[in-house]
Structure prediction request, 229 residues.
Amino acid sequence: MFASMIIQLFSNMLYFVLHVTNAGSFPRPLSDKEESDLVDKMEAGDDNARKKLIEHNLRLVAHISKKYYNGQVDQDDLISIGTIGLIKAISTYNKGKGIKLATYSARCIENEILMYFRNIKKYSQDVFINDTIDTDKDGNSLTLLDVISDDINIIDDIDLKIKLENLERYMAQVLSEREKTVLILRYGLYNQAETTQRDVAKRLNISRSYVSRIEKKALSKLRHCFESC
Prediction:
């Protein structure tokens, strides 16, 4: 049922994704009050409110898609994939969790784009990548591996970039200062040297077992954030 709703909403919104409005721009951003009112109506079952939230957040899709556009993938395809992420975000948004709609939507849009690149990488491995598919200007054979090798590197770079951006955001959102300090020291974040639990304990003047508990709790919080969307 959810999948059919996504397809229906996507069909209705595709025009707005691929073309700007008659005024020459995306629908204007909503004010905080307008957004809050529409979210309340949507949660009460108002489909028109859901559609308005999607329309007025298309600018976010364009912004994020542009950030990850590399010239190797059709930009309209990337925007369309991002819009699916937006539709999923709006349709599953829970105001009661205290997360801003834009923050939640950006996370889902990025995840949908990343999934798209991952699928490209996955299916590219199902063919014979060493088969000759063309020749270059000098008459040398070109294989599929020659064509997609740069794309695979790009996919890996995007994957790492998104994960690092999400990690930094999640650390700021859910970790205490002590938890952040322990993880920074333990794993060498922000150009710090990796440190053992024993050394962290000495530096913070706490027991090693306490460092271990803090580390496990912090990692659990971050894991929950990564799995939430």
Notes: The two ends are 19 Å apart (CA to CA).
